[in-house]
Amino acid sequence: MRFGVIVYSSGDLTKVKLVIPEQLALKVNKTNDIEISLEDGHVWINSPVIYLQHTKSLVNISYVVVGNILSFQQDVNVKTVQETLIIDPLIYSTYLGGSLLAFGKAVAIDVQGNAYLTGYTKSTNFDIVAGAYQTTLAANYDAFITKVGTGGTSLVYSTYFGGNNIDYAYGISLDMQGFVNIIGETLSDDLPVTSGAHQTTKDNGFDIYLV
Rounded to the nearest 5 degrees, what angle is found at the Cα of 98, between the Cα atoms of 94 and 102? Predict the structure, then answer.
């Protein structure tokens, strides 16, 4: 999790605060990263990269947590510098989707900075790359698997994944060889199943699938 903040020369960094819902646990770890405990996992906010806009000089600033409020502690020497501070600048931001509903549910990042996304959509014109495994929407909702290149300017690949009924995807990961794994649930009885798979036919209701 990252966020960008600009503090102009007339501003006060110590007044920048992030308020976390009280039911979530918030703490600073030994590497000055923030850990937010959720009901089903954790979110980490890495230690901020902060520099002066004009000189590009790095500034030593750390997080401060009081209760459910996250703020910044600024080096006393920086307070006298009349220059704009840049905190974790936005690297890229982009839309992904079509003309109907699309839900992004998980993302994984590789060592090169490529982003792997999964979720589900009912758009027939979702951002699909030519030559994809599945280029058309199969039913009401299909899962999607998309790789966004470093910098967010292009899609390396993007495909639907689904069968003759609803298919949701909730999680994505990369293995040691760089292969993508997704997990979700489905009502489709015709999802592609590999030979010798643990379960080759669908049971009643929603089944879990792993790709």
Answer: 80
